[in-house]
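Design a sequence for this backbone.
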């Protein structure tokens, strides 16, 4: 306890954010003009005006807005980007992506995870799900970066040698699930119904159930996928997953662009969650996902960036804005998918997709202290209007970039302050990523 000037007793907490605006994303849908946020250990213990707390560390929040840390509901921690771009999708996959995937070593993934996690910290993402190669190497980086990460080893049966083996997933769960003070989770990851055998999906679903973890996959991403599975099995991708016992509330499906109304009904009925990836869907010419229909039917929808191969960055602010614009285009309705809903998808929606809605996704007392501060002093975020004219949510969704995030806090720990990342060695990583990526390309024969 410490005494205030007026003699009032003040409780000491680890971290106190003073005098910031806040968009808590709580059930009340409030925007707060000036509040303090008290953090003790890994939790938010109080949020309100002029809190009677003293911080062991205090951050001045004036001219900043506090938001829940953003949650990336679909990404892969790849090492290369901007390489061999602008090719037709199937050629790009077979000539570039699969040779790279096959050549990855744990050292490549260590460098890749350093770069990806640095980029996420710098753009306000505090939780992500990664579906890719050598997940133990990526998870080890998360112990250091301080982020909250779910790792789903990307199992691929066809072609051989480009993915992880389902048989290794169980060991990974036993070795890594719950590490990093509970920040690291392991899920089952199956690349897609066209690249994994039916029995892998069935076994993967059983494994997810055995350990009480989620199952992540790509689903109905392109018309090519629908045609391929129709030809191979006489079923659509969604029907395949149902047949193989994988349409459950444990399943997080990325994309779902090419789905018919009755398939959306089925996804809803089975409690499947969907990660929407607007940039990737456009860049790969996959199509525009029926997001408004998913939301109307109450399906949990989160936002993802997909990988830096198909985006090419991990900025969820861009995804929020693009998610809105795409639904405006398809619906012809200027009120479709309001800014609040886009922000909900990038926070609470994605948290629900990851089964973490009780812990993260909003700034509320008792929840994990995953908080970002956005600097409102840049001209593209002027003017800041208050009271009945409050424009903060629109500014965040339509005008802000990831680079406006000045402070990133995850699990109560400051990972970045004043744009300085405190947990990863940025300059060292830049050199490491450059040389490792060059080496990877050489090994992949590019
Ligand atoms: Zn993906």
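Sequence:
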């Amino acid at each position: 306890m410490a005494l205030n000037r007026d003699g009032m007793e003040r409780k000491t907490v680890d971290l106190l954010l003073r005098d910031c605006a806040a968009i808590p994303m709580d059930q009340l849908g409030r925007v707060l003009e000036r509040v303090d946020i008290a953090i003790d250990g890994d939790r938010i213990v109080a949020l309100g005006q002029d809190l009677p707390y003293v911080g062991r560390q205090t951050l001045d929040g004036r001219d900043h807005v506090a938001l829940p840390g953003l949650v990336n509901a679909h990404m892969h921690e790849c090492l290369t980007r901007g390489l061999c771009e602008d090719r037709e999708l199937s050629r790009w996959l077979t000539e570039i992506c699969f040779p790279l995937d096959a050549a990855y070593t744990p050292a490549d993934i260590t460098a890749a995870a350093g770069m990806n996690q640095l980029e996420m910290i710098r753009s306000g993402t505090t939780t992500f799900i990664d579906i890719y190669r050598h997940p133990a190497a990526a998870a080890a980086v998360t112990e250091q970066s301080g982020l909250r990460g779910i790792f789903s080893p990307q199992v691929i049966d066809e072609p051989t040698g480009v993915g992880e083996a389902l048989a290794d997933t169980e060991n990974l769960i036993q070795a890594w699930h719950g590490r990093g003070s509970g920040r690291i989770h392991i899920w089952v990851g199956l690349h897609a119904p066209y690249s994994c055998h039916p029995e892998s999906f069935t076994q993967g679903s059983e494994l997810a159930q055995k350990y009480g973890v989620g199952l992540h996959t790509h689903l109905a991403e392109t018309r090519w996928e629908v045609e391929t599975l129709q030809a191979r099995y006489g079923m659509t991708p969604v029907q395949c997953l149902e047949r193989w016992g994988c349409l459950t509330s444990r399943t997080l499906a990325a994309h779902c662009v090419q789905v018919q109304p009755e398939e959306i009904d089925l996804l809803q009925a089975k409690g499947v969650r969907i990660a929407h990836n607007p940039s990737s869907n456009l860049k790969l010419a996959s199509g525009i996902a029926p997001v408004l229909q998913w939301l109307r039917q109450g399906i949990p929808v989160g936002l993802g960036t997909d990988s830096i191969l198909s985006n090419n960055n991990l900025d969820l602010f861009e995804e929020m804005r693009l998610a809105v614009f795409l639904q405006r285009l398809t619906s012809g309705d200027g009120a479709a998918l309001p800014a609040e809903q886009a922000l909900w998808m990038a926070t609470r929606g994605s948290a629900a997709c990851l089964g973490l809605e009780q812990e993260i996704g909003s700034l509320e007392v008792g929840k994990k202290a995953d908080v970002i501060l956005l600097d409102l002093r840049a001209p593209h975020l002027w003017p800041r209007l208050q009271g009945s004219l409050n424009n903060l949510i629109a500014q965040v969704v339509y005008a802000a970039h990831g680079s406006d995030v000045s402070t990133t806090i995850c699990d109560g720990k400051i990972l970045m302050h004043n744009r300085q990342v405190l947990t990863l060695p940025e300059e060292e990583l830049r050199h490491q990523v450059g040389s490792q990526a060059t080496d990877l390309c050489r090994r992949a024969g590019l």
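The chain has a mean pLDDT of 96.
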